[in-house]
């Protein structure tokens, strides 16, 4: 059975597909009210998150943190695995190791999205790709010791010029060859890049670790024109059984996002797993 989460940040984030919240407590209450199961947290410095406080909220609410999102480190600080600036590259790896430490304590996975980087001006694709693979190998080796899953995300061409599709991402997974490196499929990016979303999901069978759901316009599922019945069926057929995390623009409000996402996806989830034990 799929579980539902929503992507949230407590930062003054310069990323618009995330809910900006004043406190985790406040979000947990809302998320619980709408029958969600988890909260995905987007943060810049994982060392600033008070783990005792977070664990207390999780225990009280019964919620989980399926994933910690790292992209703000790229957006705000320019940290990436492919940066031509060595210091930024090394800082990106250091940051990701800190994320893995926090993820271990919270039993979460770590999103490797925008932080994996792009092809910078003056850089060849080969150079950028090699740096990305090198960085991924370092963080995977560490994550394997901690048994923390890493979620590699294909991102659309308007946000990065390196690895936009599921097929390219599957090649990355094959090259890195780590049991903790899985795919993060984001329906918003897939709608732009994949010829047929359901077919690409099926090609990614057994490799999917996490899913971001957003409609065609990056609003809550149900507010655009994606066929979530077909998408969820393909995910189930692909052997995926984890979180659908709404990484969406918060319009008109977080309550409305939770309500629409829930009312769109819950009946489909129920229908998908009808008759399953
Ligand atoms: C960026 O568009 C995105 O989808 C995030 O999950 C990347 O970190
Ligand atoms: Mn995403």
Q: What is the gist of this entry?
A:
With 277 residues, the chain is an alpha/beta fold. It is built from ten helices and nine strands.
Q: Can you describe this structure?
A:
By secondary structure, the chain is α/β, with parallel strands linked by helices. The chain has a single domain, classed as Divalent-metal-dependent TIM barrel enzymes (TIM Barrel). The chain contains ten helices and nine strands. It has an eight-stranded parallel β-barrel, surrounded by five helices. Helix 5 (125-146) links the parallel strand 5 and strand 6. Helix 4 (86-106) packs parallel to helix 5 (125-146) and helix 9 (228-237) packs across helix 10. The longest helix has 22 residues, at 125-146. The protein is globular. The mean pLDDT is 97. The structure holds L-Erythrulose and manganese (II) ion (MN). L-Erythrulose binds at residues 69, 71, 111, 113-114, 153, 155, 159, 186, 212, 247.
Strand order of the largest sheet: 1-3-4-5-6-7-8-9
Distance between the termini: 10 Å
Q: What is the number of helical segments per DSSP (H or I, 4+ residues)?
A: 10
Under CATH at level 1, the class stands as Alpha Beta
Catalogue the ligands. Answer: L-Erythrulose, manganese (II) ion
